[in-house]
Amino acid sequence: MALIRPFAGIRYSKQLRDSFADLIAPPYDVLAESGKAQLQRKHPNNIVTIDLPHLPTKSAGPDEVYEAADETLKAWLSAKILQRDIRPALYPYAQTFDHAGRTVHRRGFIALVRLSPFGAGQVVPHEKTYKGPIEDRLKLMRATGAQLSPIFGLYSDPRHEVTAALYKSVGKPELSGTMDQVRNDLWSVPDADTENKVIDLMRPRPIYIADGHHRYTTALQHQAEAIAAAGGELPDAHPANWCMFVLIGMQDPGLLILPTHRLLGGIESFDIAAFIKEIRPAFNVSDAPLGGGEVAEYLRMILPKQPPHTFGLYDQRSGRLIELRLKNPDLLKPLEPNHSDAWRRLDVAILQRYLIDEVIQPRFAVGKEIVRGYTADPDAVAAMTDGSRHQVALLLQSTPLHALEELGKFDEVMPQKSTYFYPKLATGMVINSLR
Q1: What is the pLDDT of residues 159-199, one digit of tens each?
Q2: What does the angle CA 226 – CA 227 – CA 230 come to, to the nearest 5 degrees?
Q3: CA–CA distance, 115 with 43 (Å, rounded to integer)
Q4: Partner of 412 for a Cys bridge, out of 51, 90, 161, 407, CB 3.0 to 4.6 A?
Q5: From CA 306, how far away is CA 313, in angstroms rounded?
Q6: Distance between CA 332 and CA 335 in Å, rounded?
Q7: What are the beta bridge partners of residue 103?
Q8: What b-and-e string marks burial along 8-37, b requiring 16 or more CB atoms within 10 Å of the CB?
Q9: For the chain, how are helix, strand and coil distributed in percent, rounded to 5?
Q10: Long-range Cβ contacts of 192-200 (<8 Å, 24+ apart)
Q11: pLDDT tens, 6-23?
Q12: Residues 395-413: what's their mean pLDDT?
């Protein structure tokens, strides 16, 4: 069962309410050096100074950069730039943004979730993790004794019971800031009756990790280190047993999954006519409805309305935009017999395991490893497929939300970058102290 609890979070002082938009940051792993510097220019106390002490992201730096992050955290606490709440609370967290011509509200809450190993509890992953990002986040967690950014978790709430219980009496947000055209609002609910009701409602519901697999794995390693240092099991309430999440109901109307399109380079010999000939046994192929080159409009207006297992391909050299419709949904069965049908029928799995691994890599990469790029931005696809770094773009529909639940039943994970939950959560809303 899923165990959650309130906590006394560390937040920016209410005296900085008017500057809050300049204090929060995107998740560390989407930032480069220029992005970090821009945030620091906006405000000297932007959370990125602590949360991203080393660049490039996803790689571990020297010990001194993490020690400097800890010194900064302590200095901001001492100066009351950051303050720890007096009592534990659950923190309703809402994001408001425009998408496809309408204003969207996504409502969730921040809480601590009891750690459990993947496959052995109610926290379910859907992506693989890699060594570099875990080493970086673990060094930061050890140095600061804090979880600085939350993990994005999903749970099933078809009647919106949890959301209704948390938001029934919230008034004006305690902290509010707009970042990248998304308004981030935060409240605190320190009411014991509400806390107990939400804890009970969440108890039977599995939590699916939408984003933050590396941070969750980092928390598991930190817990293992704490257990080893203690010489045995930790008391249940020990901070190392818990991890900070933003939890959002799967049925929330503001929960959006965008596709992450694949950009391929190192295939200068790619010939679209030869490619079509190779895949015709498996796909019906036609020119995309909008004709040559209208990639952004196709991604926004046409592809999302096509049947499942419909792909697009944009070839920069010819300027052609073609549409591929899978003939047999069991295409991957002989290639991946050890995977479930749910995995084999994922568009991202079909794209990776067949179109790239079985066709493009051996036929057009000429002994080289394909250069891979990714984007969820429809306007960026054509510009990034400019013939220099990337020559071809493979275009996808969104991964359906129910796929997370289906794969969870088989303890399977999706291929890399299968989901892009929009918008990203802001870092700096609440910090969880492990000390």
Answers
A1: 999 999 999 988 999 999 999 999 999 999 988 999 999 99
A2: 85
A3: 34
A4: 407
A5: 14
A6: 5
A7: 98
A8: bbbbbbeebeeebbbbbbbbbbebeeebbe
A9: 35, 25, 40
A10: 194/90, 194/165, 194/166, 195/6, 195/88, 195/89, 195/90, 197/165, 198/4, 198/90, 198/109, 198/111, 198/162, 198/165, 198/166, 199/3, 199/4, 199/5
A11: 999 999 998 998 999 999
A12: 88
What is the Cα–Cα distance from 283 to 228, expressed in whole angstroms? 54
Kindly report the average pLDDT of the chain as a whole number.
93
Kindly calculate the radius of gyration of the chain based on its CA atoms and give it in whole angstroms.
23
Kindly tell me if the per-residue pLDDT of 33 is higher than 90.
no
Report the C-alpha dihedral over residues 188, 73, 152, 407, rounded to 10 degrees: -140
Report how far residue 321's alpha carbon sits from residue 292's, in angstroms, rounded to the nearest whole number: 5
Burial class (CB in 10 A: 0-12, 13-18, 19+), 334: exposed
> Considering only CA atoms, which of 143, 14, 8 is closest in space to residue 73?
143
Residue 151 has pLDDT above 90, yes or no: yes
DSSP-derived 3-state class of residue 244:
strand
Q: How many residues does the chain have?
A: 435
Distance CA 422, CA 424 (A): 5
Give the whole-angstrom CA distance, residue 235 versus residue 239: 9
Please state, for a pLDDT cut of 70, what percent of the chain lies above it.
99
| Percent of the chain at pLDDT exceeding 90 | 81
Q: Which of 251-265, 284-298, 336-350 has the lowest mean pLDDT?
A: 284-298
User: By the 8 A CB rule, do 109 and 195 touch?
Assistant: no
- In angstroms, the CA 195 to CA 434 distance is 21
- The identity of residue 407, as a single letter, is L
